[in-house]
Design brief:
heterodimer, A: mainly alpha, flat, B: 2 strands, 67% helix, membrane (chain B)
Chain lengths: 311, 313
Amino acid sequence: MRTPRSASPSTRPGTRPNDPPRPRPGIPPNTRDVRDALVGVGRAVRLVLLLALALLFLIPFYLLVRNGLSSEADITSPEWRFFPSELHWSNVREVFDDPNVPMAHALLNSSLIAVLTTVGTLLLASLAGYGLARIPYAYANVVFYWILGTLMVPAAVTFVPSFVLVSSLGWVSTLRGLVVPTLFSAVAAFIFRQYFLGFPRELEDAARVDGLGYWRTYWQVVVPNSRPVFAAVGTIVFIGAWNSFLWPLVIGQDRDAWTVQVALSTFTTAQTVNIHELFVAAAVSIVPLLVVFLVLQRHIVAGVERTGIDD
Amino acid sequence: MRGPLTTTTLTRKLLGPQNRHLWFWIFVGPFVLGLTLFTYVPLAWSVYLSFFDAHNTVSPTEFVGFDNYTAMLGDDAFTGSLVTFLVFTAFIVPATYVLSLALALMVNRLRWAQAFFRSVFFLPVACSYVVAALIWKMSIFNGVRFGLANTVLDWFGADQIAWLSTTDPPWYWLVIVTVRLWLQAGFYMVLFLAGLQRISPRLYEAAAVDGARPGWQVFRHITFPQLRATSVAVVLLLVINAFQAFDEFYNLLSDSRGYPPYARPPLVYLYYTALGQGQNLGLGSAGAVILALIIAVVTVVQARWFGLGRKED
């Protein structure tokens, strides 16, 4: 009578342990029917609820695209319509041609910053994580707590002192100032350390036997076998860098140093551009992330799960 | 293949695997150096600067002792910003917790289309606060007629609302809370999903054998207690993130006329104090130090309270 559970062994990831348990054999059939019916109703309610929530979650994306492709009149019309009366694909070109909107330049800045930040963070944090996890050193724990200590102080709180430092270095409105201070992510180093602690030692031992030192073991054995964690941390860092706002707002003061986020924000508050251009620009600004997201979705989710914070 | 140490050149001796201290610092050194320079040094500098008068300059001019601190703590706007933060946290932490957990529970049970729903709820993570604030401010919660929210209200015959400028009742809270909820719920849903996957099916079998009714009873006695570690981490992250709230407040509420005198969380207030027209960096530093201390205390108390960190060692 019992439903076979053995079909989904507990060790395999991806099993769904939450399937409602089947009624016990001892229960009179009448009750069981009622219970089965209730479970069925519950499932239907759940599905309807999920669909409704999914729709709610998608509406903002729809509005972004809808307004971006509408004419100004459609957006500001007092008669709200679900579909725009006409699609204006030319809006996309318009926003790039508008001399008041440094959209192309802002996109270039954002791309440079996001790529440099991602590459730099991966390099620095993975090396640090590996050293902490695998190179025996008497004070490794002290160093580890020195790194963890910065997690207590959220980056956003240090923006005033960091601005002070960066401006005294003369780095305001420079690529250096926008990128370098963000490269040292304690979270990333922490994730890499946790990951390398679980890395199979046998592989490294084999490399050691082959006469490789720490450096070559790392590059030739450990890194090629750790691609998923690099992809996961990399995409998370990339998303964070692309979407970050406070630091680029503080440091990128000149118009030439604006990132996409700062540019968009400036337009929403100053209202110097047309609303439809603003929405096109915003839609364009999330395209790179949607591409990254769609291509690397599994890694992002895995990476979020792998942060180790919920172990 | 054995015996690589036979080639005892000088570099090999220096950089050979036996010199662990050196290798440790080659790997970890650059990171620690950068972290120290760009986190600890600014913090120390900030503490130092907070005892000085520093208008429009990053170098201290006149020693003023604790004046900046007393000024900051006596400033209604600053203490008001802390209250704003508390109210915001009181709204957003439980709301996100409940929504993300509910989403995870529902998505986890799906037999089909699980990847689809998970993606839909996770998708807003790819959206920035700036873009989300733009959609909320200019398309959903517009004060004038062409906003979606007011259109819906109109269908039900209700009066239109100037969402972002009505302070009594404070409708802007609805706008601020829903933006963040939309943006972050999917992220925490994934954390909960990971936690759910780790619960052993045997526990559910045992519960079924004991006659626990599927649904609330199983959730209360099995699922929820098993998610404890995840819950602790989620609440901790939610509180820390709420403390850092800046993007949506700034983008939703400030306009060409500046920032309204209400709904200023600490970071928004510090931004205008330190980098606004006054450029009072001494005062701003004092505020940053106070804020850092509060966050540190809250984090430590919370971690101790939940027993976080015991497992990490």
